[in-house]
Amino acid sequence: GQQVMQIPQYQHVQEGEDFTTYCNSSTTLSNIQWYKQRPGGHPVFLIQLVKSGEVKKQKRLTFQFGEAKKNSSLHITATQTTDVGTYFCAGREGKLIFGQGTELSVKP
Amino acid sequence: GAVVSQHPSWVICKSGTSVKIECRSLDFQATTMFWYRQFPKQSLMLMATSNEGSKATYEQGVEKDKFLINHASLTLSTLTVTSAHPEDSSFYICSAHPYGDTEAFFGQGTRLTVV
Prior knowledge:
The complex is a heterodimer. By secondary structure, chain A is mostly beta strands. Chain A has no helices and eleven strands. Chain A has strands spanning 4-7, 10-14, 19-25, 32-37, 44-49, 55-58, 61-65, 71-76, 85-93, 95-98, 102-107. In chain A, a hairpin with a 1-residue loop joins strand 9 and strand 10. Chain A starts with a strand and ends with a strand. The mean pLDDT of chain A is 95. Chain B has strands at residues 4-7, 10-13, 19-25, 32-38, 44-51, 57-58, 67-73, 76-81, 90-96, 105-106, 110-114. In chain B, the strands form two sheets. In chain B, strands 2, 4, 5, 6, 9, 10 and 11 form a seven-stranded mixed sheet that branches. Chain B has a four-stranded antiparallel sheet with strand order 1-3-8-7, with no helix packed on it. In chain B, strand 9 (90-96) and strand 10 form a beta hairpin. Chain B is globular, with a radius of gyration of 13 Å. Chain A binds chain B through residues 1, 30-31, 33, 35, 41-45, 48, 88, 90, 92, 95-101, 103, and chain B through 34, 41-46, 49, 60, 93, 95, 101-109.
């Protein structure tokens, strides 16, 4: 079945440093979604990418969808303590298949 | 955005008892809802797809007789963990997609502890 792999599993950064998480699918995706889950909370939708090679920005967050629609990345510029949480990518093929998530911790 | 409400937020039960978790769509109708389980520091694993008025679709390896799903109305799906055991302790969370093939809205989740 479809698998969505995400790396790294953990990332510890100093406040102000950049952060990137990568997502790879075993199959071509119709779209990919990104979610953020704060500790103790539930996932909250960040963005959906649909087009091959698509790039979207939300303030300090940049999302990319690969040309082959099998990989994606989330890049955060100049992290802040409010960015702490686990970031999940999810491929949508009827149902959402989540990657393992990348837990981001930010040291003030 | 749409609101999905899940209840209870946490529950502690004795081994062998059953626990029911409710998932409600408050401002939209959901013909389909999804139930996930999440162990600490791990990803969300889809357990089953709940379909209003019909049987749920379970993922491979999920026991349908242990995790009973009922979706009797367009705004309510329930997950019952039957004869719970300590290994069933986990974070259970539901979701729905009110706007078609776009974002999922999640309930607050239910932390189940079986003692």
